[in-house]
């Protein structure tokens, strides 16, 4: 293997400029060998009298995209990144960074430590550390405010969102932005050398950000402090429960209240504390869980290349079908929307247009993009019009009879190689596949509502689905910007099967005397984006009611989801009827507690002979809901419905509002320890005296072997 860093002289074009060439695929992360290589190359270049300037250049698809995240958690090896950047900073020959691709985290910090920066258009600059539970740890919180101001530093660092160089043109970060007609990577090196030659000719050899003073007068300092406080308050809401954004703001504030060397030391302290925190471990786990989920495990099967999908059809133009159509259109794919009546079709297409207009109003998409997307969507009421599409997603009513009838029809009308997917949330897709003559081309594509916004896509393989169909559905998910996770068939697949256990406990707690508000508040306080009962009101309580009716394997227990069922039977379907677990203001849709719902549930609990308790604590609510999730996840893993614990986590992070800083239910179980998990489940088993709290054998097995779920 060749070294990831080489020093290359540029003769004959410019024999006084050397290139530090970094080649560390896939993203040129600053692994130990790269850090060491950069330091060695600088020393060599410094010692070579012929060399007057150095360019840092990267092979592959991007400049350095950050520190090597895989190294976090291991014993750090010297040279540490801040030392490397100091070496760059103090080099007695100018160092110029040639930027392209995604210049992120430590990569951006390295660029800021260089004496000059040249970039091609389209290059993205960012400090995404907070998304990993970290803060920039190699000068980012000090150098960015120095060169671009406190406000931009606060915005970029607390959001973690990269920005294109074009948007940052006024901030002085880039010294030379290559002109539009030369702006691709091929020209980058030539242009950077040209820029460097000019620097040398002008004898302009030193422009170091760390030497720029942060000289704010009292008034400006006060204004900057107010700004920091505003960002603290905003982050406390937006990144609820997360430590890193707050530490980052403190560190940025140090940039104008402390001398640089002290502020740098403090930045490192914050960084090291964050790196060792459970939150950062969880967020790093989340990062890799999402990347790994995209990789299919091919158990002995031959890998397959995905089929090119140029046109699709969506069956059903309701909220779900419309959202799915938008996902395809957003990815530039032609969509035919099929409805049974012209009236429903028109309604569906109008609803899509309205959703795009709303997105345009909010600045998420521009008018040209709206028109492009709408032009890709056409409607029909005739199955015959689907004869040439490459893939169909059915998003019709959730009953087996309806689905089988649709699939049988599609099978007759679509070309033989077309893939037929169902968006069912619960139903047995093996049975749906049997209604066709192409069971190997049937797959589940389970989108989450609102489909055009939610990141998760469960790709469900039936026992007949062939590898090419599965690969195609996964690839298509990626093209639509989804986190696609391959799962197998069972009632509710991974996400909803686990959610049923979570909801079951919320319902049991209601029967035992907890109020909807108490349950929801406890779960929001724990970290969930929303409480389970508010979610249920939003999605419609009748949907689960209907699904439970269809479920032949439903537990034979009159208490199972009895609270939800009694509400539905009294016409309380959730937000759509203005009453459910809560009541909703007709005008504003504002939620408030409803004694009528509580009374209905308690009367029903009395009939079921369930004793009311007044001692239900928030901790009991949180543990019963979360441990029910963990236990079911372990069953799912053991049954191989999900291939990896991290896949389950990717599902819960992207489809169910599980807090990213806890990494997903499986990661959380490992973090608190399987011993505690098993002991608590056994306690609930004794307490409840029902069949639900059986410890999953996998948990006992892993505990006995001192292993983890996510290992
Ligand atoms: N360290 C280690 N591996 C990384 C990595 C990193 N910083 N960034 C990406 N990778 C790996 C991915 O895991 C993936 O590996 P795989 O092929 O084995 O699954 C591979 O690189 C390709 O990544 P993507 O599939 O994400 O490729 P894309 O082209 O879609 O995106 C990217 C590229 C925009 C660079 C994206 O990978 C990304 O955002 N990476 C994270 C960047 C980041 O967070 N940097 C900050 C790190 S923390 C830091 O620098 C601390 C410092 O302040 C001290």
Ligand set: 3-hydroxybutanoyl-coenzyme A
Question: Based on the structure given, which CATH architecture of the largest domain is correct?
Answer: Alpha-Beta Complex
Whole-Å distance between the termini? Answer: 29 Å
Instruction: Give the number of domains.
Output: 3
Using only C-alpha atoms, the radius of gyration works out to 28 Å
Counting DSSP H or I runs of 4 or more residues, the number of helices is 27
| Broad CATH class of the largest domain | Alpha Beta
The low-pLDDT segments are none
CATH level-four homologous superfamily name of the largest domain: 2-enoyl-CoA Hydratase, Chain A, domain 1
Q: What is the number of beta strands?
A: 19
Average pLDDT value? 95
At the fold tier of CATH, the topology name of the largest domain is 2-enoyl-CoA Hydratase, Chain A, domain 1
Fraction of residues in H or I helices? 40-55%
Give the class from helix and strand content and strand pairing: alpha/beta
Task: List the strand order in the largest sheet.
Answer: 12-11-10-13-14-15-16-17
Main sheet summary: 8 strands, mixed
Please indicate the percent range of residues in DSSP E strands (runs of 2 or more). 5-15%
Could you say which overall geometry the principal axes of the C-alpha atoms support? Answer: globular
């Amino acid at each position: 293997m060749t070294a990831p860093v080489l020093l290359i002289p540029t003769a004959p074009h410019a024999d006084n400029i050397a290139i530090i060439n970094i080649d560390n695929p896939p993203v040129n992360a600053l692994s130990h060998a790269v850090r060491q290589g950069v330091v060695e190359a600088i020393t060599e270049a410094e010692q070579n009298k012929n060399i007057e300037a150095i360019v840092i250049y990267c092979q592959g698809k991007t400049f350095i995209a950050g520190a090597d995240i895989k190294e976090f958690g291991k014993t750090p090896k010297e040279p540490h990144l801040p030392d490397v950047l100091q070496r760059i900073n103090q080099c007695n020959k100018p160092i110029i960074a040639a930027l392209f691709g995604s210049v992120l985290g430590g990569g951006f910090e390295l660029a800021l430590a260089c004496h000059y920066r040249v970039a091609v258009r389209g290059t993205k600059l960012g400090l995404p550390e907070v998304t990993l539970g970290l803060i920039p740890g190699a000068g980012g919180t000090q150098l960015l405010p120095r060169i671009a101001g406190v406000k931009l530093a606060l915005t970029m660092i607390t959001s973690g969102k990269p920005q294109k160089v074009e948007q940052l043109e006024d901030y002085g970060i880039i010294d030379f932005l290559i002109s539009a007609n030369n702006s691709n990577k091929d020209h980058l090196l030539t242009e950077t050398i040209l820029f460097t030659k000019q620097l040398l000719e002008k004898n302009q050899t030193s422009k170091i950000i760390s030497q720029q003073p942060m000289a704010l007068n009292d008034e400006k300092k006060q204004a900057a402090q107010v700004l920091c406080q505003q960002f603290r308050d905003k982050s406390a809401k937006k990144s609820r429960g997360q430590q890193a954004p707050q530490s980052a703001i403190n560190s940025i504030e140090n940039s104008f209240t402390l001398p640089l060397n002290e502020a740098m030391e403090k930045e490192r302290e914050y960084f090291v504390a964050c790196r060792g925190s459970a939150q950062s471990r969880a967020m790093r786990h989340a990062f890799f869980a999402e990347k790994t989920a995209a990789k299919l495990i091919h158990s002995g099967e031959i890998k397959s290349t995905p089929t090119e999908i140029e046109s699709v059809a969506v069956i059903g133009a309701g909220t779900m079908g419309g959202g799915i159509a938008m996902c395809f259109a957003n990815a530039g794919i032609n969509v035919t929307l099929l409805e049974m009546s012209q009236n429903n079709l028109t309604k569906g297409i109008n609803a899509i247009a309205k959703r795009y207009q709303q997105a345009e109003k909010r600045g998420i998409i521009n008018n040209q993009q709206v028109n492009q997307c709408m032009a890709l969507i056409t409607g029909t009421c005739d199955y015959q019009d689907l004869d040439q599409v490459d893939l169909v997603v059915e998003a019709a009513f959730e009953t087996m009879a309806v689905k089988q009838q649709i699939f049988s029809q599609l099978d007759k009308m679509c070309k033989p190689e077309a893939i037929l997917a169902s968006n069912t949330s619960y139903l047995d897709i093996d049975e749906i596949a049997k209604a066709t003559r192409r069971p190997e081309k049937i797959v589940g594509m389970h989108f989450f509502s609102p489909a055009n916004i939610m990141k998760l896509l469960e790709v469900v393989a039936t026992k007949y689905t062939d590898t090419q169909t599965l690969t195609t559905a996964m690839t298509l998910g990626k093209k639509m910007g989804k986190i696609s996770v391959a799962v197998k068939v069972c009632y509710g697949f991974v996400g909803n099967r686990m959610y049923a256990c979570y909801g079951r406990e919320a319902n049991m707690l209601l029967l035992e005397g907890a109020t909807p508000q108490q349950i929801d508040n406890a779960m929001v306080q724990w970290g969930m984006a929303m409480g389970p009962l508010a979610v249920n009101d939003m999605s419609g309580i009748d949907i689960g009611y209907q699904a439970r009716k269809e479920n032949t394997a439903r537990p034979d227990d009159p208490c199972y989801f009895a609270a939800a069922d009694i509400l539905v039977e009294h016409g309380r379907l959730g937000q759509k009827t203005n009453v459910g677990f809560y009541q909703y203001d007709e005008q504003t849709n504002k939620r408030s507690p409803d004694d009528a719902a509580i009374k209905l549930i308690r009367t029903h609990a009395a009939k079921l002979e369930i004793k009311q308790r007044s001692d239900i604590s928030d901790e009991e609510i949180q543990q019963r809901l979360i441990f029910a999730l963990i236990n079911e996840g372990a069953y799912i893993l053991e049954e191989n419905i999900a291939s990896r614990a991290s896949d389950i986590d990717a599902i819960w992070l992207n489809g169910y509002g599980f807090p990213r800083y806890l990494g997903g239910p499986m990661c959380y179980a490992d973090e608190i320890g399987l011993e505690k998990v098993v002991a608590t489940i056994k306690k609930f088993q004794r307490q409840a005296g029902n069949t639900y709290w059986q410890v999953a054998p996998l948990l006992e097995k892993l505990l006995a072997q001192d292993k983890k779920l996510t290992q």
